[in-house]
Specification:
alpha/beta, 6-stranded antiparallel sheet
Length: about 750
């Protein structure tokens, strides 16, 4: 961390905006007396949160605001802004630059900002304490205060050294812990007093409560019984509710499926129409078959007539030829016999029932056709002879008509065959439809019966659901009543462990018995307690709870006090260890710087002790603070300085001259800075009393110190000026306002060359 710049507006003698850049290890501020040099150091202290107006040569806030002159009017506020380089994150802020500003107004009010965000003074102090700097720390030595570290009391010197060592935080924590310890002691007394106040009332309530202890016992018994009853009832209702819901859904699904099946089966009803149509068609076939057979019989009769006529003509011809061949007569007779036989067979064919197989009919007709063909071929030779024209003509006409009738007969036989086949097919379809209709009616009846059973089951389940709903309402009523009598613990019935199957298997009479036991216990509790008993019980519980709370508070406060005592002891121990170690390190540096300044001699710091009894504010010894020291005393320690000049028998600060005191104080201040180097130091004319030889030694020490801390020196000493990298000159112009001029030695050297 490095100090980058300082901006002053309206502070003391700086009426105009003035900026100082600190980009080198040593920056020097010079100027005549009264020009406002020291106001720069005070501006730094001011912006870092200095609250002591006296240390900054003022009495109130408006004393720090430019008051004006004959040529320049006064300002209404003063503002100081200081900028730090935070690239190393020394400040716990995520910014590369940390800008602190403080503005004071005429009414003495102040405004603090960090990076242009308004904050409290506490925030400024906490931020600076993280890097061990502050408004009144050892790193800012104001004008005339160089000798202060030697002139103050041992106790104040110790505080200055502890501040330089960064031990102030321990004192702050110890102080805070002691305040907390005192507050804890006061709280403990208050809590003990409160507990003593409620003790008699608690004792009285305890006697009263003994009268209704039985009620509490009964409540416990009731609570236990309630938990089992409610858990059993809850499981019973939940399981049955789930079962009823599940079974209802399944049955409703089954009913819907049955209804769909019935709807599908009902589509069979229109088949009756098609079946009647088949019956009508069969009736038509029967009529057609009857008509066809009538025609067939008529054809047979016609054929018979023709055959008779032909037979007659044949006989006539046979008479004419009797004399020709006797054998022929015999054959004709045989043939006539065959024809008669065929005619008889034909008559038998006419009498074949409708149900006769078609193959039999076919065989008979085939025999008839063959017989006729043979007969025709047999007598065909007679046609080849030259018959008598008068006899031959009628035979030819008869044969033609006979053939026509035979063809018609064959056609009518084929038609009859087709009608019989169609009629048989229709009868088979009708019979099949009848069977299917009977099956459909049977299935339809069965499905309707199943649907009725399912709907009955659904109705039964719905009745069960209504009953379980009523039981659930009674269950909720029991819970509400239990809450009134037993309390919130009844809500824990879910924690009661029981097997679900055991609940389902148990007879409901057992649950009714438990409910009756609950009712009996409720009546007994009401008879024992009543309104007054309940109020007393509640008051006793509240009072006892408060007493237990207070007892716990006392225990916690005592533990807190012990913890604070331990913290204070540990902090004090750590403080003493760090202080002892720091004094040892400071003495080494102090001896080195002292020897450098005086050319030898001895210088050291040592601890002084002033033992006094420690009292509290009211003059009484604090018991908690008393325990911090085993001897019941507080050892007030301080730091004294021992010096021994070379070649002189001077061994005390009192005997030192002004110059010797200045050299000694500078040696001690530089020793402090070496042990715990601050980020920057401001030295306001600490070299004023040095001669030329010592000024060179002082300059050497500044250069050595600048390796660890950034230095801003306000000086009149030429040797000191020569060690600076930048020189700021402060003058007072005609308007009584400080004006700043700056010179960088590196640039000046280049210009001269």
């Amino acid at each position: 961390m490095r100090l980058k710049s300082l901006e002053i507006v309206g502070f003391k003698s700086f009426s105009k905006k003035t900026a100082l850049e600190f980009g080198v290890a040593i920056s020097a501020v010079v100027g005549p007396n009264g020009s406002g040099k020291s106001n720069i150091a005070e501006a730094v202290r001011f912006v870092l949160g200095e609250q002591s107006f006296k240390s900054m040569r003022g009495k109130r806030g408006e004393d720090f605001i430019f008051s004006g002159s004959q040529n320049t009017g006064r300002r209404n506020q003063a503002k100081i802004t200081i900028t730090f380089d935070n690239t190393d994150r020394a400040f716990n802020l995520d910014f590369d630059e940390v800008i602190l500003s403080r503005e004071v107004f005429r009414d003495s009010s102040n405004q603090y900002c960090i990076n242009n965000s308004q904050v409290r003074l506490k925030d400024i102090i906490e931020l600076l304490s993280s890097v061990h700097i502050g408004a009144s720390s050892h790193h800012i030595i104001s004008q005339g205060e160089a000798d202060r570290i030697l002139s103050v009391s041992p106790k104040e010197r110790k505080e200055m050294i502890e501040d330089a060592l960064g031990l102030k935080i321990y004192h702050w924590k110890i102080n805070e812990s002691e305040k907390k310890l005192i507050k804890t002691s006061e709280n403990l007394k208050e809590v003990e007093l409160l507990r003593r106040e409620i003790a008699p009332h608690l004792k009285y309530l305890k006697k009263q409560i003994e009268k209704i202890e039985r009620t509490r016992s009964l409540r416990d018994e009731l609570a236990k019984l309630y938990k089992e009853y409610l858990q059993r009832e809850n499981i019973y209702l939940q399981l049955n509710k789930t079962r009823v819901s599940r079974d209802t859904q399944l049955l409703q699904k089954e009913a819907e499926q049955l209804k769909e099946e019935l709807s599908t089966l009902n589509t069979v009803a229109p088949r009756a129409v098609s079946e009647n149509a088949l019956l009508d068609e069969a009736s038509v076939f029967q009529k057609q078959l009857y008509t066809t057979r009538e025609k067939k019989n008529e054809l047979l009769r016609e054929i018979g007539k023709i055959e008779g006529m032909m037979e007659y003509e044949k006989r006539e011809r046979e008479k004419n030829q009797e004399n020709k061949n006797s054998n022929t007569d015999t054959d004709l007779r045989v043939e006539i016999y065959e024809v008669e036989k065929f005619i008889k067979n034909l008559e038998k064919i006419i009498q074949v029932p409708d149900s006769a197989p078609y193959e039999d009919l076919k065989l008979v007709l085939e025999k008839i056709r063959n017989s006729i063909t043979i007969f025709y071929q047999t007598h065909k030779g007679e046609k080849d002879q030259e018959p008598d024209k008068d006899q031959t003509a009628p035979s030819i006409d008869l044969q033609k008509e006979y053939h026509i009738l035979q063809q018609a007969f064959a056609d009518i036989i084929e038609q009859e065959k087709q009608l019989i086949e169609k009629n048989q097919t229709t009868q088979l379809v009708i019979e099949k439809n009848k069977n299917e209709a009977r099956d459909t009616e049977r299935i339809l009846y069965e499905k309707k019966a199943q649907l009725s059973i399912v709907e009955t089951k659904i109705e039964t389940l719905q009745n069960e659901e209504v009953r379980y709903h009523e039981e659930a309402e009674e269950f909720e009523t029991e819970i509400r009543e239990g809450l009134v009598i037993v309390g919130s613990q009844i809500k824990e019935f879910h924690q009661y462990v029981i097997d679900e199957q055991a609940v389902l298997m148990e007879d409901r009479k057992e649950q009714e018995n438990r409910r009756r036991q609950i009712s009996v216990l409720k009546i007994r509790i009401e008879n024992l307690s009543g309104g007054v008993g309940e109020e007393t019980l509640k008051e006793y519980d509240d009072t006892k709870e408060r007493d237990e709370f207070l007892a716990k508070e006392i225990t916690d406060l005592e533990m807190s006090a012990q913890s604070l005592q331990k913290i204070i002891t540990d902090l004090q121990k750590q403080l003493n260890e760090d202080f002892t170690s720091g004094i040892t390190n400071i003495n080494k540096q102090f001896q080195n710087f002292f020897s450098l300044m005086f050319g030898g001699g001895q210088a050291s710091l040592f601890v002084t002790t002033d033992t006094k009894n420690k009292k509290s504010k009211n003059g009484q010894e604090n018991e908690f603070l008393k325990e911090l020291d085993t001897e019941d005393e507080d050892k007030k320690t301080g730091i004294d300085v021992s010096v021994s000049l070379p070649l002189k028998k001077i061994k005390g600060l009192v005997a030192l001259s002004g110059g010797e005191r200045a050299l000694t104080s500078i040696a001690l201040l530089f020793a402090l800075s070496q042990v715990n180097p601050p980020p920057f130091m401001i030295l306001d004319e600490t070299d004023a009393a040095l001669d030329e030889a010592n000024s060179r030694k002082y300059g050497d020490m500044l250069e050595n110190l600048s390796k660890f801390s950034q230095l801003i020196v306000i000086t009149h000493n030429r040797e000191t000026m020569s060690r600076a990298g930048i020189l700021y000159g402060v003058t007072m112009d005609a308007s009584a306002s400080s004006t700043l001029l700056s010179v960088k030695f590196e640039e000046a050297e280049k210009i001269v060359k």
